[in-house]
Amino acid sequence: MEREYIKINRPSPLPNYLPHLKELDDIFWKKWIFYHLLTFYQSYDSAELKQKIEKEKKRKYPRIEREVAKFLRLKLNGNREFGYHFIAIGENTNDEDTEGNYDITINSTNWSSKNFHFECKNLDNSQDLINKYICYNTYKKNEQNENVFDGGVLRYFNGKYAQNLNFGGMIGFVLDGKIDDIKTKLIKKLQVKFNTTPNGDLIKIIDNSIDNNSFTFDSFHNRFSSEFLIHHMLFNFTF
């Protein structure tokens, strides 16, 4: 199924000469990763994914987010063009609290940064899932008897994710509701300061940031006295 509303710009060709590959900057590599993610989104089999989601819903403790992320990784790795330069890997445990437990990591041995990490979260119109995408109170206590906060975006600022990089990614799996409304709620929530202030404080938002698609935006944050960039993609899986 081709979704014509999705805009995809094919990047400049990757060079065949290995030393030239090593010289490419992060922006170039990220454009190719976005291209492959958008290509997946444009042509994935909705009936196949819907079947997997419905099957997962019947489990006692469904983990739809994990199954959709796995589906995405398998489709990327099954793409011969993607596999020529990249590999998509995912979580190695079932413990969501494990540090460094990324949902999707796209790796290329020829890229100096090597890894593009993506945290994946389910989304709908509920404030609960908006909070879990960004930051929420777990109501657990740390050693100082303080409330522990968690959340997809927060993990880039609480010492867990992408500590040696200046960028990361979020992919929202929209299972119900309208993407425009959900995006508005996400941006509003991002404007709330984290408990790790100033790490994570929002600097600015760039809307429609990936190939001018309305389901994408970039958020720039303070981290380690510099800017940290998060690329957001909201995929509509409402069928």
Please describe the structure with a list of short key phrases separated by commas or semicolons.
two-stranded antiparallel sheet; 239 residues; alpha+beta
Approximate shape: globular
- Side by side, the strands of the main sheet go 1-2-3-6-9-8-7
User: Element order, helices and strands?
Assistant: HHHHHEEEHEEEHEEE
Report helical residue fraction: 25-40%
Residue ranges: pLDDT <50 for 5 or more in a row? 93-100
Q: Termini distance?
A: 12 Å
Structural class: alpha+beta
The major pleated sheet works out as:
7 strands, mixed
Strand content: 15-25%
How does this structure look, described?
This protein is α+β, with helices and mostly antiparallel strands and 239 residues long. It is built from seven helices and nine strands. A hairpin with a 5-residue loop joins strand 4 (136-141) and strand 5. Helix 3 (46-57) packs antiparallel against helix 4 and helix 6 (127-134) crosses helix 7. It is globular, with a radius of gyration of 18 Å. It starts with 17 loop residues before the first helix and ends with a strand. Residues 93-100 have low confidence and may be disordered.
